[in-house]
Amino acid sequence: MKISLGSWFLVVALCLAQWASAATKNFAITLTWENRTVAGITRPMIHTNGQFPAPQLSLNQGDRVEFYIQNNCPFSVTVHFHEILATGIEQRGTPWSDGTPGVSQRPIEQGGSFLYQWNADQYGAYFYHAHHRGQIDDGFYGPIYITPASSVERPFDLISNSSTDLKAMMEAEKNTSPIMLSDWKRYTSEQIWSSEEASGVDALCVNALLINGLGSVNCFSQAELAAFVNETGLQSFLGNETLTDLGCLPPDLVAAQGAFPHNYSALLPGMFYGCVPTEASHALFNVNPAAQYVSWDLTSSAGVLEMIFSVDEHEVYVYAIDGRYIEPQVADAVIVPNANRYSVMVPLNKPAGDYTIRVASASANQVVNVTATMHYEAANKLNRPSNPWITPAGINATEETILFDESHVVPFPVVVPSTDVAATYFLDIGQTNASYVWKLANQSFNIEYEESQPLLFNESSIPSDLYIRTKNNTWIDFILQVTTVGQPRHPIHKHSNKHFVIGQGNGTFNYSSVAEAMQFIPDSFNLKTPQYRDTSPTPLPVNEPTWLAIRYQVVNPGAFFMHCHIQMHQSGGMALAILDGVDHWPIIPLEYRLDEAEAS
Ligand SMILES: *[C@@H]1O[C@H](CO)[C@@H](O)[C@H](O)[C@H]1NC(C)=O
Ligand SMILES: *[C@@H]1O[C@H](CO)[C@@H](O)[C@H](O)[C@H]1NC(C)=O
Ligand SMILES: *[C@@H]1O[C@H](CO)[C@@H](O)[C@H](O)[C@H]1NC(C)=O
Ligand SMILES: *[C@@H]1O[C@H](CO)[C@@H](O)[C@H](O)[C@H]1NC(C)=O
Ligand SMILES: *[C@@H]1O[C@H](CO)[C@@H](O)[C@H](O)[C@H]1NC(C)=O
Ligand SMILES: *[C@@H]1O[C@H](CO)[C@@H](O)[C@H](O)[C@H]1NC(C)=O
Ligand SMILES: *[C@@H]1O[C@H](CO)[C@@H](O)[C@H](O)[C@H]1NC(C)=O
Ligand SMILES: *[C@@H]1O[C@H](CO)[C@@H](O)[C@H](O)[C@H]1NC(C)=O
Ligand SMILES: *[C@@H]1O[C@H](CO)[C@@H](O)[C@H](O)[C@H]1NC(C)=O
Ligand SMILES: *[C@@H]1O[C@H](CO)[C@@H](O)[C@H](O)[C@H]1NC(C)=O
Ligand SMILES: *[C@@H]1O[C@H](CO)[C@@H](O)[C@H](O)[C@H]1NC(C)=O
Ligand SMILES: *[C@@H]1O[C@H](CO)[C@@H](O)[C@H](O)[C@H]1NC(C)=O
Ligand SMILES: [Cu+2]
Predict the structure, then answer these.
(1) Using CA of residue 42, residue 44, residue 47, residue 52, what is the dihedral sign?
(2) Cβ–ligand 3 contact at 226 (below 6 Å)
């Protein structure tokens, strides 16, 4: 792309340049590929201005963002702002700043640069991350927080009406900070991908979990693993087999692998077997009990696992999901699927001291955990270890543990979708030809299409059954059908605007539309208080297939993407392109057009 650099040279020289001028915030990011030791494992990875995780983008609602990226990695990259509705000045869309290769832009080549521009129209917790190939697993992710405008109504009076509490919660929200949850592998994303191709195996096994980039490798004994299998009921998956020493389902059991060709000797040591313990420092969160509350934005950038989060002996009030308020719900433990954000308000009402923050895999395919410490800054201390709500296997450690209940979420305020639906798409999720090759559309979205001319510029660049076309200001339904048992929950993420989660169930969806299904199985739907989010997990197919129904309004003309946020599944092709509002596509500014040589 042709960007006139001008003043940008100055910006690039700074570490993370950020200043407010007429509500425009400029960020300059340089990516490098260097060795770093994370969770005690040294490997090459993506550094963002020398950092990992990438620095936070702090914004105010209404800010205009200019994000300049200089790619000094030895490969091409893109970045996606998850999930900022990419609108620009005067509400014109900026779909060329969505960051999806093959859909909205060309990958940014080695040595190249790109300027992303968008408006922070929404409020709350978001994040930005690599969107080329498997690079999110190489450490390119960082938090975004958009302070809500003062006119946005907060839900905190549903927690307490005491004026001191309300003041304290407003203050805690003002000082909210991210807790990035991620998983970590000892191999690079390209090593993992090559091994998947050579072995035929879906690489759903990690080496460590991280909290704000910190953690270590902990190896459980066979006896501990056997006890976790009992606790979690994993025996029914395992049959006569056992978990690997990394706590993983063995490769032949991963997502029905056994039904596809495979060569287990092409797996790398440490991918499924070969746990090597490490020592490394864990995250520390200093909190001030005088503040009464602390607010955290739990943000998962995990490539594989869903995680469960808890703070020993403390309740949390979940008050926002995916950057949008809900009626606060109290819980002791919260499951955070890949790519979701759960904002929690934590009352600091226990004796001062150190309390363990526990994060563990909530996915059936691996038992793995990590801890951090919440430290109350006060003189008198708790003189004993704190008591857990959850076990290292990610399940309740006590009878009293209350798990956050998704089925009781009520958005704040409630917004309901239209029932005037222009089109319903039935999307079957399953494997094709190999256990690591997946589809969401009629065929697998081959990773090589990321190198195609982007659909925003050329609708003929990829097969037409890998995308749908919609008209602006219409309502669209997707029925996501998980066709086979043994698949994990797929966190399905739709780019551009949020979607309503209107229904889910077990079995096969044998209806031609949601309206028809509602006549027969009304209890499977919620059109009165549906969740409104950007990433929604499909229900776990335990004994039979499952389905998820989501609905959205086309408001933002441009070429977007919908895909599983398990990175191996996205790389494996579980994706569909969405050409939204084709009747109102914007004119692409000259500087974002493809090179002349290409466009002719
Ligand atoms: C990382 O370190 C290894 C040896 O520990 C070395 O072989 C490799 O070249 C280094 N990679 C980078 C990108 O510096
Ligand atoms: C606070 O007052 C509002 C308005 O009367 C009410 O709806 C809400 O339930 C109250 N909150 C609590 C925690 O009692
Ligand atoms: C697991 O459960 C089985 C059957 O209840 C029991 O025989 C076995 O001792 C348990 N193993 C562990 C490690 O708790
Ligand atoms: C485990 O069970 C499978 C069938 O469920 C069988 O094919 C296999 O031989 C058994 N393995 C062992 C070690 O018993
Ligand atoms: C299986 O993988 C190993 C290790 O990469 C390789 O040497 C072997 O040739 C492969 N076997 C087949 C049948 O492809
Ligand atoms: C997992 O939990 C166990 C038990 O609390 C703890 O000993 C271990 O350190 C945790 N693992 C990590 C990596 O923090
Ligand atoms: C976890 O919760 C279940 C269901 O409430 C309960 O039956 C079980 O006893 C609890 N586990 C522990 C260790 O208390
Ligand atoms: C799967 O294999 C069939 C025939 O063997 C082929 O037609 C199809 O294109 C393959 N699908 C993918 C996603 O590779
Ligand atoms: C669009 O992509 C197709 C398929 O790659 C190619 O044949 C065609 O020339 C492209 N069109 C333009 C205008 O570049
Ligand atoms: C998939 O195939 C079905 C049947 O041919 C068709 O109706 C549907 O539009 C196709 N889906 C996509 C996304 O192209
Ligand atoms: C689907 O089946 C699972 C496992 O049997 C069950 O736990 C779950 O409640 C069922 N879901 C619905 C919506 O009926
Ligand atoms: C698309 O539709 C939305 C919703 O009605 C509207 O706000 C927007 O202005 C439309 N965009 C264009 C470019 O017409
Ligand atoms: Cu998936």
Answers:
(1) negative
(2) yes
Amino acid at residue number 448: E
Whether 224 lines ligand 3, by a CB cut-off of 6 Å, is no
Ligand 11 atom index nearest CA of 542: 4
Residue 271 alpha carbon to ligand 6 centre in Å: 20
Rounded to the nearest angstrom, the distance between the alpha carbon of 348 and the centre of ligand 2 is 21
Question: Residue 598 is inside which H or E element, if any?
Answer: helix 596-599
Q: pLDDT for 333-374, tens place per residue? A: 999 999 999 999 999 999 989 999 999 999 999 999 999 999
Domains of the chain: 2-153 (2.60.40.420), 189-266 (no CATH), 284-408 (2.60.40.420), 417-599 (2.60.40.420)
Predicted confidence (pLDDT) at residue 171 exceeds the cutoff of 90: yes
Atom of ligand 11 lying closest to residue 506 CA: 1
Query: Which tokens hold the place of 578?
Result: 């969405």
The best mutation among 305, 370, 389 to test binding of ligand 6, ranked by most ligand atoms within 8 Å of the C-beta, falls on 370
Residue identifier of the C-alpha nearest atom 2 of ligand 10: 442
Backbone angles phi, psi at 563, to 5 degrees: -160, 165
φ, ψ dihedrals at 418, nearest 5°: -70, 160
pLDDT bin (cut points 50, 70, 90) of residue 10 is: very low
Map 265-320 to HEC letters: HHCCCCCCCCCCCCCCCCCEEEECHHHCEEEEEEEECCCCCCEEEEECCCCEEEEE
Report d(CA 445, CA 454) in Å as an integer: 14
Q: How many helices (H) and strands (E) does the chain have?
A: 8, 31
Q: Rounded distance, CA 190 to CA 206, Å?
A: 15
Query: How would DSSP label each residue in 176-233?
Result: -EEEEEEEE-SS-HHHHHHHHHHH-------SEEEETTB-------HHHHHHHHHHHT
Range list of β-strands (E), 20-97: 20-21, 24-38, 41-48, 57-60, 64-71, 79-82
CA distances from 478 to 103, 463, 492 (A): 20, 20, 11
Which protein residue's CA is at the shortest distance from atom 4 of ligand 10?
442
- pLDDT 10s digits, 96-117: 999 999 999 999 999 999 999 9
Contact (CB, 8 A) for 31 and 77:
yes
